[in-house]
Amino acid sequence: MFRRKLGIVFGIMLVFSIAGACLVSAFGKRGTEEEEEGLLVAASFYPVWIITENVCAGVEGVHVVNLTQNHRGCLHDYQLTAADMLTLETADIFVINGGDMELFIEEIAGKVPELRVIDTCSGMELLESGGHSHEHGAPAAAAKSSPADPADDSGHTMNGHVWMDPVRYQQQIRAAAAALGAADPAHAAGYNENAERYCGEVAALWDEYQDVTAALNGTEVVLFHDAFYYLCDACGMEVLHGVDMDADTALSAGEIAELTDEVRYHGVKYFLAEETGRAAAEQLAAETGAQVIYLNPLTEGDAAADSYLQGMRENLELLTGLTEQKDGL
Amino acid sequence: METIYRIMEALLPFEYMRYDFMKNALLAVLLITPLFGLVGTMIVNNRLAFFSDALGHSALTGMAVGVLLGVTDASLAMVLFAVLFALLLNGIRHSGIVASDTVISVFASLSTAAGLVILSRGGSFSRYSALLVGDILSIAPAELFRLLLVLIAALLFWGAAFNRLHAVSLNASLAKSKRIPVALVDNLFVVLIAVIVMLSIRWVGILIINALLILPAASARNLAANMREYHLFSLLFSVFSGILGLLLSYYLNMAAGPMIAVIAALLFFATVLVRPAVKS
Questions:
Q1: What is the number of other CB atoms lying within 10 angstroms of the CB of residue A61?
Q2: Which of A172, B179, B222, B226 would give a disulfide with A120, using CB separation of 3.0 to 4.6 Å?
Q3: pTM score
């Protein structure tokens, strides 16, 4: 009797194993993958991927992958999957944004010690993220003027969305190219050439921004995405308040009330938000009569190397619309 | 550790064994699943399924208390809290004031809510959301060692106290008349469950830990006619679903913990189907 049961138990397991094997052979992706020849460069997420793709364009034997291709938005709380670990184990170089954007990097360092990590933000002056940037009653100050509050319990206080500032973005491009060149000296000239070409395009775009920047200088805004701090910093807009939309808990009633009072007190007319942060921004706009402008924080998009230029050009159009409207008033 | 890795590579000459994280995960599965298969039998027998689920939820509060006290080792805070929680819950459960399932539900809700309130301060709950689903791929050798210790402790407890535990589960009054320290045995068992749940919850996840504790034992119960078969089948089902789940998650690129739970559940249905043929 026992033997028969044991037979049945193993029979069931056998059936499951065969079914599993069928599933794997039908849908599995591994096992057929072959080692790529040459240099495999992984980029941590979308904006970094765009930089890396541009810097490595046309360089022979270099293959660029976006580690978090299927992930949308910023990486703050990203958990690495088995597939990600696999990519990193096979990659030679890992280009990251830095500025606390990839919090999982510490975890990787212990596990894949031979991986060469390039931090595109290293040595750059970063802004603080979230919270108030001014004293009540006093005129609003620029975001970066307030020193970091060490006891801030909101977690990451460093703001890593540097790519939204076209000037800092060029520094990122050059940093990536220099580090890639150091890691792969044979192609250093190619990386540099690409970086200079791409920086040129970004600089040209930034020139187009100058009219808007002049018009918007000093405008007070409330942000619904940390990425826009850098855009505001670059354009001279004053951030009255940044609402942390990366938090996955909704704003509490107290926060909404406080924010409403603040917006009314300062007469803020514009909110900068991204599409996915709609609900909170709309709600506050309805409460205070401010206008919401939906900009693109460029944390996701299609796999085209010129996505950054396009996205920033669209942002420029939206901001230009704002200045025209301002003139009309 | 290196020696174990080399042995694994020699025994399993497959592509996935090239990666240390897969070796660690496989070792974790080989430690956690026998543990769950073993303890699960008594959880099912003693009708503690809901109890162990509540314990899993208390991980949130344990984590929160750890954060509040600034304890660096979150596991320690979680284990201590869970042991207290389990003993308190067991005490109230046996006092007979309120129905058992009601008490458990009250405690589970309270610990989940309290944990959420504290951990979501400042809107950063997502940092802890890994606790909900678990991530067996991120396990480190030191943590494997802890699991090994728990497995040894569980085996010792089973060897020393299984008969008494079984007697208590059959009939507490009868066990008492045989001079078995009923309360002590019962409390030791829930403490064991608490420690096991807390040390494995980060790898398995609050949402599915109970599936892995209950399903193999429940499947085994469908087929087994005595305690020996019950334990053997439970262990086999548990280890099998763990290994198959991990391998499938690797090849199909899906989350490991949930995959293991799905296979354990499918095994349960398979045993339900073959049960008439076995029991006749």
A1: 12
A2: A172
A3: 0.71
User: B125 at the A interface (CB within 8 A)?
Assistant: yes
- Chosen for mutation from B1, B21, B132 (greatest number of chain A CBs closer than 10 Å) is B21
* Inter-chain residue contact A86 with B19, CB threshold 8 Å: yes
Q: Which one, of A283, A244, A236, lies nearest residue B125 by Cα?
A: A244
A281-297: pLDDT as tens digits: 888 888 888 888 999 88
Contact check, Cβ <8 Å, A29/B253:
yes
> Looking at residue A29, what is its pLDDT?
62
Tokens encoding A83: 């597939």
* Secondary structure (3-state) at A62: strand
Tell me the pLDDT tens digit for each residue of B149-199. 999 999 999 999 899 989 988 888 888 898 888 889 989 999 999 999 999
The rounded distance, in Å, linking the Cα atoms of B133 and A66 is: 25
Helix (H/G/I), strand (E/B), else coil: A302? coil
Sheet with A131-132: strands ordered across: A131-132, A238-242, A220-223, A270-273, A291-294
| Matching residue, tokens 């809510």 | B113
Show which of residues 131-170 on chain B sit within 8 Å of chain A, judged by CB atoms.
135, 137-138, 140
Note the helical H segments in B70-99. 74-95
CB-CB contact of A95 with A120 (8 Å): yes
